[in-house]
Amino acid sequence: MDKRDYYEVLGISKTASDEDIKKAYRKLAKKYHPDVSTETNAEAKFKEVQEAYDVLSDQTKRSQYDQFGHQAANAGFGAGGFGGAGFEGFDFGDIFSAFFGGNQRTSRPTNRPRKGSDIQRRMTISFEESIFGKTEKIKVPVYDECHVCHGLGAESRKDIKVCSQCGGSGSVIIEQQTLFGRTQARAACPTCKGTGKEIINKCSNCNGEGVEKINKEVEIRVPKGIETGQQIRLEGYGNKGSSGGPNGDLYIVFEVKPSEKYIREGDDIIVNIPITFAQAALGTELKVDTVYGPVMFKIPPGTQSEAKFRLKGKGAPNVRTKQLGDQHVIVSVMTPQKLNNQQRKVFEELLRIEDEVDAPKNWWDRFKSNFNRP
Fold it and tell me: pTM for the whole thing?
């Protein structure tokens, strides 16, 4: 029967990277290994996978295979071609890790002190709170030391004994017959689950776990200038460690509610204010809101719509340097939609004056244009 394409065997594309090839091989080798697989014709499939990997993991062999296909064996791959299921380039440690959860080397004791897992929580704050910071106490669900047995997991110390299977080491040696011969691997003791201890009478509150889930009160200090997506770490406020290991950490990720008045860009704050035609033309002094309180702000005569002005030091504090940004004021000249009689008269008079002012200029322009005619 014709051989299947090696890329098809590993389930990868012809543009697959070396890492993709290795990952695909590990997965299939674990799936079809005769000693652990329940697949039909597992041994034949395992050899097919090994043969494909032996070729595609070698740059020279892969290049020639891409050109000549299975006929590359006749094109000079070297002794043996790629027809055999050799182990060139094969990492024995990888396959042992895939099959047995470890390799032939002795693993570290599973009852060593281990840090507890970290916790992440989101905290929503207002725009003003993000600028000035605040202190707030919150409840965080964590796994902490059992208040009944104080972490023992047993009713008393007399109810704890050395594990009869592992002798207190927390691990046992497992021997298995594999395709590579008889192997040994060290794994966590199934009796004590790696703790090295057996509990005769488990704690009635935590059922032998030594920890319980509680709502722990934590004081959160929100830094000044914090932004959405930024976080702080509270060391030791995570879940309880095991075998005397330290607690995990608590990460607070912040989400800042948008303001109806202000827009933040980096450390700067932007505010939009409307002004009238008269204020834009004549100039004026207005009261402008900032996060630190209102300030009086002068708008110069002849201000155009969308003009931008800066209020130095009225922006947000940088969460790291603590330096203040600026506030930018953008003015919009508003066109009145409804005019009362007095306003209409004023605008009509203004229009008449503008026409009179422009009339001589228009007459002179027309006069000069007569001399420019051919």
Answer: 0.59
